[in-house]
Amino acid sequence: KIIKRNKVTGYLMWYVIFSYPFWVQSGLLRMEAETSWTHYPYNYITYVPEADPYSEPSDDETKDQTFSMDTLLPDDLLERILSFLPIASIFRAGTVCKRWNEIVSSRRFLWNFSSNNNNSASQRPWYFMFTTTDEPSGYAYDPVIKKWYTFDLPCIETSNWFVASSCGLVCFMDNDCRNKIYVSNPITKQWRRLIEPPGHRSTDYTALSTSMNRAKQSYSVSVVKSKQVQGNFFQWELSIHLYSSETMTWTTSLTDVLTGWRGGDESVIIDNVLYFLIYSTGGNSDHRHGLIASNLSSTSSLMSSFIPMPCSLTCGRLMNLKERLVVVGGIGKHDRPDIIKGIGIWCLKGGREWQEMARMPQRYFQGFGELDDVFASSGSDDVVYIQSYGSPALLMFDMKLKCWKWSQKCPVSKKFPLQLFTGFSFEPRLEIAP
């Protein structure tokens, strides 16, 4: 940190020694969390510049000269250091000075930052929790530094809107006319409104999903609409509409009529296959749910790709975890299938077979208090989030480590008996733009 002139040789010598604690000690960047930091891959760096020619030192030259660390580090090295910060710290780094702001705002830094953290645990999916039933206000949970942030979402107007996310991109659709569809990056606050999708406006059930292609920087959005055939409760007209950001247009890929089944509000896109849940209308199945796997490149009949669920579920939640279809479902009692007795997690193998990954231990299941037959659940990467509608408690399951743990306590508490909570997970990324 200090440059000194050697009194014997007269050479200017300076040393830069830094590791993670430097940032805390220098006061340039501070966080409130205790166990939040990712250690840098450097223990120390020593640099000796070219020496000045020998000359007799004067009194002024023998005095210690102090320089700012910021002026000594070249841009590429400083950029490299900042790229290993947690994503929440990047915004604080941008407020340190103009130079740091220019670095963390550059396109090259955004891509390098995401590349450095793409396959590491330093950037894990966040969870946004809606804390009211009317307004879209809430908090976002960062599992890396175990902290909740006051967080504002772009575009969304009420908490009951449809939400889907993929690789840092979050899609919102209104719950009234279902013609307002936005795609956004909730971290950078960039957003875009899509043109209105085709098909019926007044549908009975709608499922929204999105898929982001990082390599091409393109995305697709799917809307599955389900409407009852007039005068026939057992027949439902179902249509699939797809939006491509490359063509900026909607196409209706398939329209079919289901007998004994209807569409719902759960869908996900994995490797150009659209998976969505269908619900029994009675009389033709022992299970309340079924799964449709519709290849977006074909137009075959929907029921030809029907996949039975692993067991009778009170509700099912679909998610894409590293290009794997994962279902989180409520397990019903044997004599009362509409009453939940536990929660299980399954992964689809080979296109039609289910592998049970975990069942929630009873102590965690009881930790939710009163748990209805439905609950909120979403995830990405290797993390599954599960939340009760009746409380702000948030439980996480790590698919890789096979372990359950509660999040830090949310800063909001239940203010009245009928207050509901829900939420969704998303990947915090800086380089994704709608």
Automatic annotation (TrEMBL):
Domain spans labelled F-box: 67-114
TM stretches of this protein: 12-31
Keywords: Membrane, Transmembrane, Transmembrane helix, Ubl conjugation pathway
Keyword Transmembrane part of the UniProt annotation: yes
Pfam families on file: b-prop_At3g26010-like, F-box-like
Coiled-coil residues: none
PROSITE patterns named among the record's database cross-references: FBOX
Top-rank lineage group of the source organism: Eukaryota
Database matches in SMART domains: FBOX (SM00256)
InterPro entries registered for this protein in UniProt: Beta-prop_At3g26010-like (IPR056592), F-box-assoc_interact_dom (IPR017451), F-box-like_dom_sf (IPR036047), F-box_dom (IPR001810), FBXO31/39 (IPR045048), Gal_Oxase/kelch_b-propeller (IPR011043), Kelch-typ_b-propeller (IPR015915)
Entries under NCBIfam families matching the protein: F_box_assoc_1
Protein name per UniProt: F-box domain-containing protein
Phylogenetic classification of the source organism: Eukaryota, Viridiplantae, Streptophyta, Embryophyta, Tracheophyta
